[in-house]
Amino acid sequence: MRPFELTAPTTVEDALAEPGTFLAGGTTLVDLMKLNVLTPQHVLDINALPLRGIDTGDGLRLGALERMSDIARHPGVYPAVSQALQQSASQQLRNMASIGGNLLQRTRCTYFRDVAMPCNRRVPGSGCPARSGANRMHAVLGTSDSCVATHASDVAVALVALDARVTLAGADGTRTVELADFYRLPGDTPEVENDLRPGELITEVVVPRLDWAANSTYVKVRDRQSYEFALCSAAVALEVRDSRVVDARVAVGGVATVPWRLNGVEEALRGAPVSQAAFEDAAARATEGAAPLSGNGFKLPLLRRTIVRALLELTEGSAA
């Protein structure tokens, strides 16, 4: 780790006035600094900023510095969000990591984290060795010739499924962005991972009220049950009446370069009967446009099965 200057502003205004890299829980930043992937000269510890609070009175409002563990166990948090947080990391990491920091965590691609290897996200134009190298964990959706790295966050998948938005504060004031629009596909500029402008800070995460989101779940498939990143995950919320799906929200992770909303699957589910056959038909649309690599073709059937499993969990006992 290279030397750096550390300051600790106590107001949002002071934090925005200083150029530097923000530090909250540090569970991503410190790791990458130790690897020399990130080498900031000035780090701002923002833990004293008044960016806390959990409000479930009308939807869900989360201060950006709320810890993952506190949100996960808070009554009234939508099940898909709570479950995604609980499965995100070890208890120790969940106690440290903030919700804002989690949404901004960098990819776990081994090439990105190894400064001896080329990586277009780290050094634009240097190449993407994952395309022809070790790519079992990499994306099959939203990829480009420049990057095939998966997005790492679990809770971002649940939040995208539930139409969450983030409030951003910067030198020019505050603005609100839909979380699904906040993340950027790699295209030819994989180093631009999101819509965060220089010096901006996430201050709040808001999930609109959705009464039937109480009937939601997060299913994560991984190599081991303990702390591990997703091979595939699915956040699903369903409204069911008279053994038919009235409405649905579906997003997936572990298979795409950003949290991936499946509008086609949602469309196929609306009006469908509650049955495994109907769920399998809808899930077949999940892999439209997929581009598997040499080592991750298994993710296509795994993705479809993960969605079906989530749907069956939510509708157990609801079939005609």
From TrEMBL:
The keyword Oxidoreductase applies. Keywords: Oxidoreductase. One of its GO terms (molecular function) is FAD binding. PROSITE patterns: FAD_PCMH. It comes from the Bacteria. Residues 1-212 form the FAD-binding PCMH-type domain. PANTHER family: OXIDOREDUCTASE (PTHR42659:SF1), XANTHINE DEHYDROGENASE SUBUNIT C-RELATED (PTHR42659). This is Xanthine dehydrogenase YagS FAD-binding subunit.
